[in-house]
Design brief:
single chain; 124 residues; mainly alpha; 9 helices; 0% strand; globular
Length: 124
């Protein structure tokens, strides 16, 4: 059986990182795949076209908000801290190495990492 992070990485072939994460958890959030896709269009390539937070983390935050509600803020801090420690940044531009020419992490790996840390908060 595929893990959710493997499913999310596969979904990444068809959509942006935020969508790949959020749509993988539609069964928990109650969102349709179409709604998840529509909600995340603006977060492709790190909100602001690689200027902002990694889209995979935005997707994870949306899942936490829908599932854990008020606890989401505390949980998201845990996800961000773990992601930062593993990857050296939470910013798409830095993760992709836009300024340095040296990528820190691929989009697929960012999606997998966000799902891994999200699942720890969800108790999966």
């Amino acid at each position: 059986m595929e893990s959710r992070k493997e499913i999310a990485v596969e979904k990444k072939r068809q959509c942006n990182c935020a969508c790949a994460v959020l749509s993988t958890y539609c069964d928990l959030t109650g969102l349709s795949e179409e709604t998840a896709r529509n909600l995340t269009y603006g977060f492709g390539t790190g909100m602001g076209n690689m200027q902002g937070t990694c889209g995979a983390l935005v997707g994870a935050s949306m899942v936490l908000g829908m599932v854990n509600k008020r606890q989401a803020n505390v949980n998201m801090r845990q996800v961000l801290d773990r992601f930062q420690a593993r990857n050296g940044s939470i910013q798409c531009r830095q993760l992709k190495g836009i300024d340095t020419g040296i990528p820190l992490r691929s989009c697929n790996d960012c999606v997998a990492d966000a799902c891994e840390f999200l699942e720890e908060c969800l108790g999966e």
